[in-house]
């Protein structure tokens, strides 16, 4: 009575198999000139340092922003407390003189 009733999982369609009777299309380009060319230099590969990707950079930037904001909040609080202490000291010293 209190057990939930889950809908039945739909059955997935069978995978379609491409028949191997159709050969793969290969594009062979004929050279424009008859001279012998060496293979063109491949594009430079980008070597990534393991563990250093866009997610890591985003995390470091986010942590930097958060820490900077916290430092600014602490600085503003310290300045506010210092101003309040100066005002209180001024008020208390003026009362002693009277």
What this model shows, in words?
- This protein has 98 residues and is mainly alpha-helical.
- It has a domain at 71-98.
- The chain is 45% helix and 0% strand.
- It is built from 1 helix and no strands.
- It has one helix at residues 54-97.
- The mean pLDDT is 78.
Task: Give the topology.
Blueprint: H1 54-97
Helix content: 40-55%
- Characterize the main sheet: none
Report the structural category: mainly alpha
Gyration radius, rounded: 37 Å
Question: Summed up, what is this model?
Answer:
By secondary structure, the protein is an all-alpha fold.
Offer a few descriptive terms.
98 residues, 1 helix, 0% strand, single chain, mainly alpha
């Amino acid at each position: 009575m209190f057990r939930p009733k889950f809908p039945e999982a739909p059955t997935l369609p069978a995978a379609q198999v491409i028949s191997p009777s159709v050969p793969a299309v290969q594009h062979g380009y004929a050279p424009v000139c008859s001279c012998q060319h060496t293979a063109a230099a491949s594009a430079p590969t980008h070597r990534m340092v393991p563990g250093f990707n866009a997610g890591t950079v985003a995390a470091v930037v986010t942590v930097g922003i958060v820490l900077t904001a916290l430092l600014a909040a602490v600085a503003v609080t310290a300045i506010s407390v210092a101003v309040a202490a100066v005002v209180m000291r001024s008020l208390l010293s003026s009362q002693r003189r009277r």
